[in-house]
Specification:
seven-stranded antiparallel β-sheet, about 120 residues, mainly beta
């Protein structure tokens, strides 16, 4: 006698991942503006000449944006981060930005950032 097989429907697949930061928890994805990936941190560490010193001009904690002005040329840029960079950065404080690997260093904390408006971070 054979046991009848029960058909299991395939698991539902979502088209987009949802980060846990949307629910008030730690970032669970590594897309720009979310958690810093280990490889991203290592690459940024391995290329110290590509860091740019900047000053925080403006912070919007509700939107998660930080407005930065480069110290050497005065170039301004706005970056977004869901992991709390806007809560840590203070207006007038010095920070460092790694443009190639999209990392914002505020003190000892590193944040993965996304450029607002499409310009390079």
């Amino acid at each position: 006698m054979t046991t009848p097989r029960h058909h299991r429907p395939p698991a539902e697949v979502r088209e987009q991942t949802v980060c846990m930061c949307v629910r008030g928890q730690r970032c669970s994805v590594f897309t720009p503006g979310h958690a810093v990936h280990l490889i991203q941190a290592r690459l940024a560490s391995a290329t110290p000449a590509e860091w740019t010193d900047a000053i925080v001009d403006e912070v919007d904690a509700a939107a998660g944006t930080v407005s930065l002005r480069a110290v050497d040329g005065g170039e301004s840029t706005i970056v977004w981060n869901a992991a709390g960079a806007a809560h840590v950065a203070e207006v007038g404080s010095p920070v460092a930005v790694h443009r190639r690997y999209r990392v914002l260093a505020v003190g000892r904390r590193w944040f993965n950032v996304a450029a607002v408006g499409g310009e390079a971070a």
